[in-house]
Amino acid sequence: MAGKHLKNLLNPCSGGELAKIVRRARDLGALTDTLSNALPAEYAGAIVAANVRDDGDLVVIAASSAWASRLRYETDRLLAAARESGVSATQCRIRVSQG
């Protein structure tokens, strides 16, 4: 019975606060995948995560400082891919993963 209750808590269709968090995590994962797929194959693994802030900043988290440097040359491509997926992004910022 506890397993069934937990499944309901994690169901993004249930409408609760936890459901909003699960839905947001899925959306950010999908955005990260979209951006990664927009890059050449040799960039596989360069992007750890991505987010869009309320002010329209697309924030891309790079796996290392070396990847961040390379991704900064790809910001136009990343913005275009985000916009094509329905994200209203106005500028792209590249950050380095801290972990």
Q: In total, how many domains does the architecture comprise?
A: 1
Q: Tell me about the biggest sheet?
A: 3 strands, mixed
What string gives the helices and strands in order? HHEEHHE
Strand arrangement within the widest β-sheet reads: 1-2-3
Shape annotation:
elongated
Termini Cα gap: 37 Å
Number of strands: 3
Task: Give the CATH level 1 class.
Answer: Alpha Beta
CATH topology: GMP Synthetase, Chain A, domain 3
Which parts are unreliable, with pLDDT below 50 for 5 consecutive residues or more? none
Strand content: 15-25%
CATH architecture: 2-Layer Sandwich
**Mean pLDDT rating:** 89
Rg calculated over all Cα atoms: 16 Å
Q: Could you name the key traits of this structure?
A:
99 residues; alpha+beta; GMP Synthetase, Chain A, domain 3; 3-stranded mixed beta sheet; 4 helices; elongated
Q: Can you walk through the features of this model?
A:
The protein has helices at 2-10, 17-38, 65-71, 75-84; strands at residues 47-52, 57-62, 91-96. With 99 residues, it is α+β, with helices and mostly antiparallel strands. It has a single domain (2-96), classed as GMP Synthetase, Chain A, domain 3 (2-Layer Sandwich). Strands 1-2-3 form a three-stranded mixed beta sheet. β1 (47-52) and β2 form a beta hairpin. The longest helix has 22 residues, at 17-38.
